[in-house]
Design brief:
By secondary structure, the protein is α+β, with helices and mostly antiparallel strands. It contains 8 helices and 20 strands. The C terminus is likely disordered.
Amino acid sequence: MEILRFENITKRYGDNTVLDNVTLSIGAGEVFSLLGPSGCGKTTLLRICGGFERPDSGRVILDGVDITDLPPNRREVRTVFQNYALFPHMSVWENVAFGLKTAGMDAKRIAEAVPRYLDLVQLAGFEDRKPGQLSGGQRQRVAIARALINRPKVLLLDEPLAALDLKLRQRMLIELDALHDDVGITFLFVTHDQQEAMSISDHIAVLRGGHVEQIGTPPELYEAPKTSFVAAFIGDTNFFPGTVRRVEGDYCDLEIEDFPTLRLYNDKKIREGGSVHISIRPEKFMISLDKPGNIKPNTNLLQGKVEDVVYLGAHTRYWVRVNDWRVAVVKQHYGYALDERRITWGDDVWLRFEADNAYMLDRYAEADENLLLLPDTEEEAPTPPDASEAATASTAEGATASTVSGTTP
């Protein structure tokens, strides 16, 4: 059941079009995330929903009612801002009660409601503290309780975790998810962090330059990206351009310049001679020192040489040169013996992946190659248990965040 709809929303600031004819449908009770880089229009769309900005054209429909022209205080939505926007001179109790007081609720009902919502966000006992006496996570909970106590139909969250450190962000994500399960209302969540969106959302809209690139569940966006931007922005990937050869049933061969011919699932039903770009996630490759035996049908086998290694605890990243191409590979550590022979720089290795694990893109833009992080552009990585396999490069948050690696000719 639809609870919120953005219908042909356009917003301009001077000559800059921030949102260009955006239409979205959000279901009742779900967590829906607006994900994209800075400047993509996600926060503007949230502010339009909250009544803090007016669209140049288009409508906002909440539970069947057009709220486009209503002021913020007459909309059944509430916003949790990035900086929380708490009143510093008020106590926790007073901050949470503020919306009910301005709505004219009687004191007895307020006195009953405030403790209930403080308990919901695990802040019972903090009633008399001022915001300056709280941690970042506690201030966020106060802001959420203040928004929820008005029982909105939709809760708007504008990058609410951005000011928190990594561990606290991870913990608060779990708490937000549990809180959503408790209250059951719709969350519209704005973030530029892919992991945040993937871990909490029922559906995600990926925005870029004021346009919606793709809408889907987290698995749909990750496993079946429609564009090169979505493929590169959400997680790691490798791009390969090629020409379809020898179509056989649901599968085809893809001829790639200076690269072995690949066997692929032809999900786009492209005819022989057609051109296509494919995306292959690094973890879809299996890497080994020895040539694999008993290869299953529709499995691709490649031989290459390791150029870079990054040890990241739970997994290791490899960049492997295959002819004129550099292939990003991720190997998960299901077990790790310190005395085992491990793959390292200069090793000749074998890569294999199944034909079903490559995905054909609807649209490719060469500029999206710039989203791929290559090993020589990253910072120094943590040292692995064996110093001989020390990592040469990683991003500062690479051990915990899904960063983007890539393939370039």
